[in-house]
Amino acid sequence: LGRMFIINVPSAFPMAWRLVKPWLDPVTAQKIFIHSSPKEYENAMAEYVGIENLPGNYGGILPYSSPS
pTM value? Predict the structure, then answer.
C-alpha cells in the first residue's frame, strides 16, 4: 500500500477507526488518511494524486464525476 485516502467519512467513522487501527500493521496504518470534509482532503489529494487526475467534485480539473 502506497497511500490510502478515505474521504467524506461520517462523523462516527473516526471512533470505528480507533477500534480497527490497532489490528493493522503499524506501517500500513500510518499510510491510511481519513478525511471528513473537502477542506481536509483537497490539498492532500492534489499533492499525491494531482489535480489533473481528479474529477472537479474532488478538487481536480477533470469533468464532474457523478456516483454510479
Answer: 0.72
